[in-house]
Amino acid sequence: MLYARPMRPLALRGTALSLLLLASLASASADSLVPESPGSTTTSAPPSVGLFARIGIDGGYYGLRTPIGIDALARVYGGLFVGGSFELGTRVGGLSGTAPLPYGGDVTRARLGGRAELHSPHAGWFDPWVGAYAGALLVSRRATEMTPTGGPRVTTFDGEIRAEAGCDFRRTFGTTRVSLGPVGTYGTAGGEQARAFVGLRLGVAF
């Protein structure tokens, strides 16, 4: 009896330690077998700045044009981007619109203004967006029909506003995102009828 009493607590203590060790190993193994939930995947942050080039066809009082534009954007919050645009377009030769025009093909139009775009902050490869533009419009033209040999060039300045929409199909390369997609706009400027634009926009964002 004198030797059995001190040995029983040691045996129980050893058994308890063994059970705790086995329970810890079992818990660790079970945790490693539980798959991660889809919602736990960390998504990359939206790009901070982007540069986009656009080309297309638009119409208006001076007939159809083929403008080329540049959009520069910076993210201010979530999917909201603000920045500026520059666009330069010339009259498409041989196309005069729906009504006779007092000007020939020598018409150049330039735009410079600010813009804002709203994107989904969690967009993946498909990124639809809406935007707005407001800025200045410069139109330079020569009345070639009234003066066939050429006449004085007339330049006017007006303001312009337009609503825009499009969608970007994006591909990510590390921290760089390349996008391509259609874009459409509809707006009006002083001295002109409302005009529509359709085209493509290619961009790179970081």
Task: Please explain how this structure is put together.
The chain is mainly β. The protein is 15% helix and 52% strand. An eight-stranded antiparallel barrel has the order 1-2-3-4-5-6-7-8. Strand 4 (107-119) and strand 5 form a beta hairpin. The radius of gyration is 33 Å and the shape is elongated. It starts with a helix and ends with a strand. Residues 1-7, 28-43 and 94-100 have low confidence and may be disordered.
Number of strands: 8
Amount of helix: 10-25%
Number of helix segments? 1
What's the quaternary structure here? single chain
> Termini, distance in Å?
80 Å
Shape descriptor reads elongated
Strand order of the largest sheet: 1-2-3-4-5-6-7-8
Low-confidence stretches: 1-7, 28-43, 94-100
Largest sheet: 8 strands, antiparallel, barrel
Radius of gyration: 33 Å
Indicate the proportion of strand residues. over 45%
Computed structural class: mainly beta
Average pLDDT, rounded to a whole number, is: 75
Q: What are the secondary-structure elements, in order, as H or E?
A: HEEEEEEEE
